[in-house]
Design brief:
By secondary structure, the chain is an alpha+beta fold. It has two helices and four strands. 11% of the residues are buried.
Length: 89
């Protein structure tokens, strides 16, 4: 094999292994509330606006406005109940 081809193949192998893998978002489970249902539960818990809601590590993770303050929260995927919330500083 000629030197240019060998170097080209080596370069392609390095690029293939060095390329970052695509991030895969976690998918909600089959028994989870829909995002719309979860937002309704969060509004019942005092949130006036939900700006982010995504499945993360077995629960809903999000951001929103509660009592005029921007908050981050974790919500139960089956009930929409707040598992924890922290003000965004």
């Amino acid at each position: 094999m000629s030197r240019p081809i060998r170097y080209g193949l080596a370069f392609l192998a390095i690029v293939a292994f060095a390329a970052p893998l695509p991030a895969s978002a976690e998918m909600p489970g089959a028994d989870w509330l829909t995002p719309a249902q979860t937002k309704e539960a969060l509004k019942s818990a005092g949130y006036s606006e939900i700006t982010k809601l995504e499945a993360d590590d077995g629960h809903w993770d999000g951001e929103g406005i509660k009592n005029g303050r921007r908050m981050t929260f974790d919500a139960d995927p089956r009930t929409g109940a707040i598992l924890g919330e922290v003000p965004v500083e």
